Amino acid sequence: MADNSADRILFQELERKRQAIVNEINTYTAVLERNRNVGMHGPLLDSEGFPRSDIDVVAVRTARNRIICLNTDHNEVMKQLEAVSARLLSKTQAGVEGMNTDFTTTVPSSEPPSRSVPFLLVDQVTPGSPADLAGICVDDRVTRFGSILASNFTGLQAIAAVVKSTKPKGAIPVTLLRRCGESTSTHHSILYKPEGNKSLGLHIVPLT
C-alpha cells in the first residue's frame, strides 16, 4: 500500500504557507481600514482631480497591489491544498493503513465531491467591505462558505452560524464559480470577519 506521509507533510507545509499569506493580507487590509476604509476601489483623487489629502495615497496603492498579488498566491496554494487533500482522502477511503487517525480533522471540509456544486448566489457586494477586499463579485456562485457545502447546506441560518462562530478578524474560506463569457473559473477567497458589529458587505441568496 502506498505511503501517504509525504502528502501529509506537504499538506502541513502548504497550510503554513497559506496562513502566512492570510496574515500578510490582514496587515495590508488594516492599512486600507486606517485610510478611511477606502477599500480596493475607493477613489484616490479628490473632486478636482488631485490626490486625496485625507489618506496616504502611496500606502493605499501599495496595499491594494499587495492584496491583489497575495490573493493570487492564496488561490494557487488553495488549489495545491485541494489536490493534496483529494489524494489523502482517496487513500483514506481505500483503507490505506498506517494513516494518522486524526488527520481527517485537519483536512478542509471542502473536499467531498459536492465541493464544486454551487448553492448560493452573490447579488450584492458593498465597496470597501470585507467581501470586496476578498475579491468577491456580484453574480459569483458560492460552492463553499466555511464548512458549508451544497451537501450540508440547510438554509441561510447555516451561513449565519458560520459567521457567528468565527472570531473577529478570523478567516472564512470561500470558494466561488465565476462566469466570464462562455467559460467558468474557480476562485478561492478568504473572507475576514470584521470586529464589532460591522457587516461583511455581502448579500447572498440560495440557488433554487
Automatic annotation (TrEMBL):
<dbReference type="GO" id="GO:0070682">
    <property type="term" value="P:proteasome regulatory particle assembly"/>
</dbReference>
<feature type="domain" description="PDZ">
    <location>
        <begin position="92"/>
        <end position="180"/>
    </location>
</feature>
<dbReference type="InterPro" id="IPR040815">
    <property type="entry name" value="Nas2_N"/>
</dbReference>
<dbReference type="GO" id="GO:0005634">
    <property type="term" value="C:nucleus"/>
</dbReference>
<keyword id="KW-0143">Chaperone</keyword>
<keyword id="KW-0647">Proteasome</keyword>
<dbReference type="GO" id="GO:0005737">
    <property type="term" value="C:cytoplasm"/>
</dbReference>
<dbReference type="GO" id="GO:0000502">
    <property type="term" value="C:proteasome complex"/>
</dbReference>
<dbReference type="InterPro" id="IPR035269">
    <property type="entry name" value="PSMD9"/>
</dbReference>
<dbReference type="InterPro" id="IPR001478">
    <property type="entry name" value="PDZ"/>
</dbReference>
<protein>
    <recommendedName>
        <fullName>26S proteasome non-ATPase regulatory subunit 9</fullName>
    </recommendedName>
</protein>
<dbReference type="Pfam" id="PF18265">
    <property type="entry name" value="Nas2_N"/>
</dbReference>
<dbReference type="InterPro" id="IPR036034">
    <property type="entry name" value="PDZ_sf"/>
</dbReference>
